[in-house]
Amino acid sequence: MGGLARAQNAWRCSLAEEFYGFLPKATPTCDVVRVGLGEGRAERLIITLSHEGGTLTIDAAVWWPYAAPREVPLVIGLSFLGPAGVLMGEEFPLDPTARVSSDLRLGLNDKRLQPHIRGAHAARWPLALFAERGVALLLSCYGSWVPDDPQRWQDAGLAPFLNLGEGPHQSGAISLWAYALSRLVDVAVTLPEIDAARIAVAGHSRLGKAALWAAAHDARISTAIIHNAGTLGPALASHSTGETLMDLATSFPHWVSPSCRARLNAGITPTVDQHQALASIAPRNVIVGSAALDAWADPVAEYLGLCAAAPAFAGATELPAAEEVFGDAIAPMQSVLVRRGPLAYHLRPGGHDLLPADWRVYLSLLDAF
Ligand code: GCU
């Protein structure tokens, strides 16, 4: 094992011990039933994982590009509302066990997926843009894998399936969502239409944190698209003026490990920071996306995380200084894109959201890497 690989193992280990908990080790087998959806460019994937006599069945959907899909690049996303949040019709089932964020301004009853969410996040996953650019998209609802609720996150999905026990370094929900992304990679590599060398994972906000942590572990992921992910995403905790680790662990205790909560309560200073999570992805590609008004995620801290990770990546050691990227104002009127080798940083005007404008940049970058 080379020096970088040894360092990456050590970083992953410390990040797991101090923040996220360790990813489960279980490697379930996975069966996929493909069912056509609507006009045939989309399919529902009924995924059944089996492990030690137990099974877990979860839905996903895949959309194919306009040109004949053969060896196409793929973006895998865990998303807040899953495929039902993108499709306008009623063909995709609403998972009754999923529990999702209550901060989506959709008035969800008990965090459940309800009929009025259909199509509500279509702009976050612009299918036509993916199809035009020749990129396939695979989406699944994060709340089906791990209910996003501090009291109920172990009641359904991965935790009971994997028989998750207790322990200081037990996976928190971010680790389990990262593990879910790797199970979706397992599914992707069975699809003959996919180019297995060009599989990206993408996530917005809490799911950007999961995309980062998944890519840090899974070398089959060629690109991590880490969008507005802030704390426990690319933002350096040591430089952030936005959300602190304590803020995060207080509002979302289930996202982190018991050891993380105990360390924070005891006032122990972390020995690792988020650039080491980003550097664990080297030599593969990383895209960090910020929104200028997203002070909670802290765009400058997100950029500094990428800069501090850069020495681990060949050809990416000279990212411009933060002052050059951000200028005097933290609310630029125009987008800024910095690209060095396998690393890219995109800052756009506006607030915390995933927009078609973000995807235009990310899909071009996927083509260029
Ligand atoms: C909260 C949380 C963030 C998270 C965000 C989201 O704001 O504090 O850490 O990224 O939710 O997932 O939308």
Summarize the structure.
30% of the residues lie in helices and 21% in strands. It is of the alpha/beta class.
Question: Could you characterize what this model shows?
Answer:
- The chain is an alpha/beta fold.
- It has 12 helices and 10 strands.
- It has helices at residues 3-20, 127-132, 142-145, 158-161, 173-188, 206-217, 245-251, 258-265, 274-279, 299-309, 322-326, 356-368; strands spanning 29-37, 42-51, 54-63, 72-79, 136-141, 194-204, 223-227, 285-291, 336-340, 343-348.
- The chain has a 10-stranded mixed sheet with strand order 1-2-3-5-4-6-7-8-10-9, sandwiched between helices.
- Helix 1 packs across helix 8, helix 5 (173-188) packs across helix 6 and helix 7 packs across helix 8 (258-265).
- The mean pLDDT is 95.
